[in-house]
Amino acid sequence: MPFIFxxxxxxxxxxxxxxxxxxxxxxxxxEEPALVADLSALWKTHVRGTPLVAGTxxxxxxxxxxxxxxxxxxxxxxxxxxxxxYGPNAAxxxxxxxxxxxxxxxxxxxxxxxxxxxxxxxxxxxxxxxAGVSFLATYYHHDISALFVQRPHSFVREVVSRRVIExxxxxxxxxxxxxxxxWGSFYSTRTLSTTLLLAKMHHHALATYRTPGTGRRCxxxxxxxxxxxxxxxxxxxxxxxKGFAYNEQRWYLFFQNGECRGGLPTPHPTNLxxxxxxxxxxxxxxxxxxxxxxxxxxxxxxxQLRNAPRWVRYWTGR
Length: 318
Description:
By secondary structure, the chain is mainly α. The protein has 15 helices and two strands. Strand 1 (4-5) and strand 2 form a beta hairpin. Helix 6 (103-121) crosses helix 14 (297-306) and helix 7 (124-137) runs antiparallel to helix 11 (221-238). The longest helix has 20 residues, at 157-176. It is globular and about 45 Å long. It starts with a strand and ends with a helix. The mean pLDDT is 84.
């Protein structure tokens, strides 16, 4: 059964690495190789200076993402990177990926989605949904499951809890724009460069892992797309009451095409089925809330103030 997305058969692209030629990662690397090299060097420096958690292969990553937020000039700004993506040499390739015809349109839609997602993710019900559904549901995917099975710290509950909380903090940085607190909040956002660093981190750490039996790269377009879709489910459900119904068929595609464990019938996203998740991963899964997430309250306030004109239009129905 072909994997159809936006009317196109993308089956042949599913096991491509994130650095494939038809990705924003590759387009940016071609248009601004120095930036990508800087982010790669930033991650490698972080690796050299950050020890593994005792007895595991887990290395805390948050420090590398914090360093981007302290860089205030225009080098890493979303506006600059959007301009590069829609420059004369890359505009057609970028439009094919994003669906947006110009840098202005892309930034307008991108910033709206980011700020509204921050609003949704910051609510307690959404945090519970993330911890109890989104993170765990990624284990449905064959390649994601195979990846974590090959990393034994995925079975250690204390490490898994730290990894999930850290991922949540990185996600909040992405949704906030990864700006410095205080005066830095008035500078350009850095969502694209932060996301690019996340891709670099995963590429360095996970590119060599393969799924037994198929030989596919574990970190591929399919596994990343499924992760994004699983996390997006939380945001989508928050807007159902406003008439923005969620198309669950896109979520189901991964099951119908054999990308996920268990085959048909397809489970409801919020109805996690244990038989479809590797029991070693399921038994190792654990999330202990951390009070340090409270530090994001100022960021939440700044984000919503930044988004005030859009919220006015939204609540007034314009």
